[in-house]
Amino acid sequence: MKAYLGVDVGSVSTNLVIMDENEEIIEEMYLRTQGQPVRAVQSGLKMLGEKLGQKITIAGVGVTGSARSLTAVLVGADAIKNEITAHAVAVSKMVPGAQTILEIGGQDSKIIIMRDGIVIDFAMNTVCAAGTGSFLDHQADRLLIPIEKFGDLALKAKNPVRIAGRCAVFAESDMIHKQQLGHSTEDIVAGLCEALVRNYLNNVGKGKEILGPIVFQGGVAANVGIRDAFEKAFNQELIIPKHYNVMGAIGCCLLAREATRNKPTSFKGWKAAEYDFRPTSFECKGCPNLCEIIQIHENDVLVARWGDRCGKWSNISVKVG
Amino acid sequence: MKVTFPIMGNSYIAFKQMLEDLGHEAIVPPMPSARTMTLGTAHSPEFACIPFKILMGTYLEAIEKGAELIITSGGHGPCRAGYYGVLHQKIIEELGYNTKVMVFDSINMGFKEFISNLNYLLNSGKSSWWRLIKVYKAIWDKLMALDEIEILSHQIRPYEIEKGRTSKTYDSCLEVMDQAKTKSQIAEAKEACFGLLNEISQDVSRKPLKIGIVGEIYVQIEPYANLDIQATLGEMGVYSKRGIHLSEWWKETTHQTNNEEEAIKAAKPYLDQMIGGHGILSVGETILHSSHGYDGVIQLAPFSCIPEIVAKGILTQVSRDYGIPVLTIFLDEQTGKAGMETRLEAFIDLLYQRRQKRLEGAVS
Q: Which residues of A touch B350 (CB under 8 A)?
């Protein structure tokens, strides 16, 4: 059976999806990147290969996420796309008619405005991580609440407290202050959810025309507390797609199918999971910029190089000497 | 005297010659780099904007090379940049250097000071006003030629077949221009550079998107401050035109042209007063770009720049009214290009889809 592989390597999670030709999701995988994108991608590839390697033939590969260039080298990608486009492509297939996409991941959050199936506006967080999953993770940790229970707890709140949401540092000191005053944990947790939503809307969503249907996706969409706070803010229900936390990877499958319509795939095969990928780096002393050059070796052969501002090293035939 | 000046794009080539022709030793600061940024941030107030920090670093690097006088320009209306010269001077003094900062404000902001600054520059270089007029003519040609060459490079880059060829050719053009000193040499060098750029093999079947770049002057002009956005766009196959080039700025300041007035007039329904810096121009130019058939606009703003923040708020409405997508990029100390590339790629995808849709609409 022909199938497509989509890989989304973000700062917090590495997601892999296998989709068949009828756009059915055969397998989805959500792994922690833990600062080691090479290992995360290879272990995902290994698990998929063992499970499905006999049954399917990969006809196309798409990659996205902040580590997309690296991932493209690891797996051999046919489509390399930014996260905005990948998410929008997935939504226009999975939730036809959607006009707004709220996407909150580990380190970044974005809003995508769509009309008639195409992106007309978007924004990504720039200032700080206060509106993202990492912030919630960190605060849950501080309150000794498992992140999975965070949302349910928020729903039990009677009087959510107001917590400053502008910046993670302000929010944290404000939260501690409220704890010391004796507010209940439920009220504080609900207050945090509201603060995150307020921050998101004032920052990422500022000036955007948010119309329904609104789709909410990314890892944070699992948090019912946040979902509730958004629904209150918009006064309407949000759509959370079935595969909400791997939508970027799904978009990649669709993009991979598009990219391989008239050409064979560049997929390196399941065996790429066993390859020895070794990143090395050196500081270029050619000018005062002192660029940090990254080199990727595949089984001792140099296969990619980047990080230079001037483009001198990106050409891999240049010798380092 | 050893005289230096800020680095802003390719203009250093003209300024260097001007100082030399007026009898000074020109100290060309190193091109802004990670080191400039490190020096600049270490000696600047944390809340200052990125142009201030890069200039601070540039001045300190020029002082290391022996600069005794720094020539710079002033600000524009209610914007912090108007105080930057004073503050830079104070920091330089506190660090124990004797180097002076000389600020040339627009001639209509203070005719007397402008003239007395010039007088000082001429006397200390043992040059006359006659000499200045002669030098000025050549330098003016050079500045304009440099801008024309840069603009041509941005026009050609989206069509280049070998990625990076235009940037390489452009670099050699700058060397050619640096050698040209007299009016006739400058004219010849300009033609030679046009020839070099036009020789680049191009795929003319491409239909590049057109993006207008608006925003604060320094981050628009200096590629180090904007992560080389115009070359990056060009290599992504996009033609970009920025709102301001130094020769144009000079024409405006000396009232030879009134493009600024046109932009200010266009902005009027949204903003009827100067808000400092280039805020009002960001609004007006976006409207003009829209009526000139541009596909989109990118606003470049130093992080915490009030005029550009105000403009950003207004651009939301302009974008809706005129149906022109606007992407705002705030620039600060970050050197990682990945974040910007992601936004640019997504923005370009958006513009292509819109264009596609418009074309389909035209057919049906």
A: 118-122
Residue A304 CA to residue B5 CA, distance in Å, equals 40
Tokens standing for A5?
């592989």
Cβ-contact A83, B342 below 8 angstroms: yes
Strands B69-73 and B100-104 come out as parallel
With beta carbons less than 8 A apart as the criterion, state whether A297 and A277 touch.
yes
Tell me the C-alpha distance between A73 and A71, whole Å: 5
Report whether A255 contacts A62 (CB < 8 A).
yes
In chain B, the percentage of residues whose pLDDT exceeds 90 is 66
Spell out where chain B has E strands: 2-4, 25-26, 69-73, 100-104, 209-215, 238-242, 296-302, 326-331
**CA B121 to CA B15: how far, in whole Å?**
13
Distance from CA of A43 to the nearest CA of B (A): 25
Place of tokens 């959810």: A193
Check residue A265 and report its DSSP letter.
-
Contacts of A115 in chain B (CB under 8 A): none
Write the residue in B35, B228, B338 that is nearest to A66 by C-beta: B338
Show the beta-strand stretches assigned E in B38-107.
69-73, 100-104
**Can you read off the two tokens belonging to residue A165?**
């949401």
Q: Mutate which of A111, A114, A120 to disrupt the B interface (most B C-beta within 10 Å)?
A: A120
Q: Are A227 and A240 in contact (CB under 8 A)?
A: yes
Alpha-carbon torsion (B103, B106, B108, B109), positive or negative: negative
- Give the pLDDT of residue A149: 87
User: How far, in Å, are A31, A81, A202, A219 from residue A137 at the CA level?
Assistant: 16, 28, 21, 11
Alpha-carbon distance values, B319 to B261, B270, B298 (Å)? 21, 12, 11
- Tens digits of per-residue pLDDT, A97-124? 999 999 998 778 899 999 988 899 998 8
Asked whether A24 and A11 are in contact (CB, 8 A), the reply is no
Whether the Cβ atoms of residue A39 and residue A276 lie closer than 8 Å to each other: no
Predicted confidence (pLDDT) at residue A145 exceeds the cutoff of 70: yes
- Residue of A89 and A202 predicted with greater confidence: A89
SS (H, E, C) A82-98: CHHHHHHHHHHHHCCCC
Cα–Cα distance, B333 to B342 (Å, whole number): 18
For residue A122, which residues of chain B lie inside 8 Å, CB to CB? 346-347, 350
For residues A9, A11, A14 and A15, what is the CA-based torsion angle, rounded to 10 degrees? -70
Token pair recorded at residue A235: 């006064």
Question: What's the confidence (pLDDT) of residue B76?
Answer: 63
**pLDDT score at B364:** 47
Q: How many CB atoms lie within 10 A of CB A211?
A: 14
Q: What is the pLDDT of residues A229-240, one digit of tens each?
A: 999 999 999 999
Question: Which residue's entry shows tokens 């990969």?
Answer: A58
Is the ipTM beyond the 0.90 threshold? no
Average pLDDT over residues A123-139: 74
Q: Does position B195 have pLDDT exceeding 90, yes or no?
A: yes
| Cα dihedral B42/B43/B48/B49 (nearest 10) | -70
Cβ <8 Å between A118 and B357 = yes
- Determine the Cα–Cα distance for residues B82 and A83; give it in Å rounded to an integer: 40
**Residue B26: DSSP 8-state:** E
Chain B residues with beta carbon closer than 8 angstroms to that of A84: 342-343, 345-346, 349
| pLDDT tens by residue, A26-69 | 999 999 888 888 889 999 999 999 998 888 999 999 999 888 88
